[in-house]
Design brief:
single chain; alpha+beta; Endonuclease, Chain A; eight-stranded mixed sheet; 6 helices; 8 strands; globular
Length: 184
């Protein structure tokens, strides 16, 4: 068996993404959004993603339409890193208009994690890597990420990563916008 072949008893649960990392996550999220229960976004810098296949405005509509509980951890718009980032404040304003979304700020944040948890856990997936949720990260920067599917070893990785984001990282960050209950 070659080194890059999937083991016949353990099909791939992870894939390395070498380009347009965040866009690949968001496109997959769009496809399964009707089954999504939770969206977790951890990105120090945000952008409107205008000109990409999944803009922040489209993300807002998808989350709102499907009533997806969403947690966003990012840096504050007053932070030195984000103050000069085009679109950070506008992306926060766009996403902040969603009832079922919580925003928290941590100005030491460097991690980048994107997770979609679905009602049927087998459709859940996550991406961890180097890419911020910005157009520059999608179109110009050299970024890498690992997409993990909720299968085989991926189940425990996604569960542990989700627990860390929701129960540790969130509470190390200052609450900027509390989640408003979504009517189902």
């Amino acid at each position: 068996m070659a080194i890059n072949e999937a083991h016949p008893q353990h099909p791939r649960f992870a894939t390395i993404l070498k380009n347009r990392v965040v866009e690949q996550f968001l496109i997959r999220f769009d496809v399964v959004s009707h089954r999504a229960e939770e969206l977790l976004i951890v990105s120090p810098v945000l952008g409107t993603l205008s000109g990409t296949r999944m803009t922040v405005e489209r993300l807002r509509r998808v989350v709102r339409l499907n009533k997806i509980r969403t947690y966003l951890v990012t840096r504050s718009p007053e932070n030195d890193l984000t103050r000069g980032a085009p679109g950070h404040r506008r992306a926060l304003e766009t996403l902040g208009s969603i009832d079922g979304l919580e925003i928290r700020y941590n100005d030491q944040l460097h991690a980048k994690v994107y997770m979609c948890m679905c009602n049927d856990r087998q459709s859940s997936f996550a991406v961890i890597g180097s890419a911020n949720m910005t157009r520059t990260s999608i179109e110009r920067n050299i970024e890498v990420g690992i997409m993990i599917r909720y299968a085989y070893q991926g189940q425990s990785l996604i569960d542990e990563l989700g627990y860390w984001v929701k129960n540790n990282l969130r509470f190390q960050a200052r609450l900027a916008k509390p989640i408003v209950k979504i009517r189902r």
